[in-house]
Design goal:
Number of strands: 0
CATH class of the largest domain: Mainly Alpha
Structural class: mainly alpha
Shape: elongated
Helix content: over 70%
CATH architecture of the largest domain: Orthogonal Bundle
CATH topology of the largest domain: Rna Polymerase Sigma Factor, Chain: A
Order of helices and strands: HHHHHHHHH
Length: 191
């Protein structure tokens, strides 16, 4: 999990044109933007252009001195890039089918807010998974992240059959849900 200080440090570095901060922001965000553009009727060159424009927007915002980022840099970069790309598609009159109906219906602030909410949930989920303990954590990771089937999980975790592994997965999920909602309620009321 990125610390808030780390994000602030990156923004300060960007405002001072610090090479390391710029490289870090680039490294942590470029692939996400490239995927966004390429998956929506763009090329690798388009992605470079849009990312460059986004960095300029972010740079000018932080240089203004009045800019306060209320979400992760990643969330902001994604939102700005998406808006810039939609605008460009509009100018070229070739909407990406997936984005066409989204045109300009979501103001960027709302979108950032929504992405921030999702980020918060992911952070709470990360914490919840951390509190889950074994074997639940490994079992859920094996199923959801490593995409293993129940047969493989049964073998790896020493369950007699896939059905038993499935039951255990269900119990673990219920436990995770309980921890998640307890943490979400406690830690999120101040957002």
């Amino acid at each position: 999990m990125k610390s808030e200080n780390n994000e602030k440090g990156l923004l300060q570095g960007l405002a001072q044109s610090d090479k390391k901060a710029i490289e870090t922001i680039y490294r942590e965000n470029y692939n996400m933007i490239q995927s966004l553009i390429i998956n929506n009727s763009g090329s690798a060159d388009d992605a470079k252009d849009i990312f460059q424009e986004t960095m300029i927007v972010l740079y000018e915002k932080v240089r203004s001195g009045t800019f306060e980022l209320n979400c992760l840099i990643k969330t902001y970069v994604y939102s700005v890039s998406r808006r810039l790309w939609l605008k460009r598609l509009q100018q070229m009159n070739r909407y990406a089918p997936a984005l066409e109906n989204l045109k300009d219906t979501v103001p960027v602030d709302e979108e950032i807010e929504e992405n921030e909410r999702i980020n918060n949930e992911f952070q709470v989920m990360e914490k919840a998974i951390g509190s889950l303990g074994e074997p639940c954590r490994s079992l859920l990771e094996a199923y959801y992240l490593e995409k293993k089937n129940m047969q493989d999980i049964a073998l790896s975790f020493g369950y007699t059959n896939a059905e038993n592994a499935k039951n255990q997965k269900y119990k673990c999920l219920m436990r995770l849900k309980k921890i998640f909602f307890a943490q979400y309620k406690n830690g999120n009321g101040n957002g």
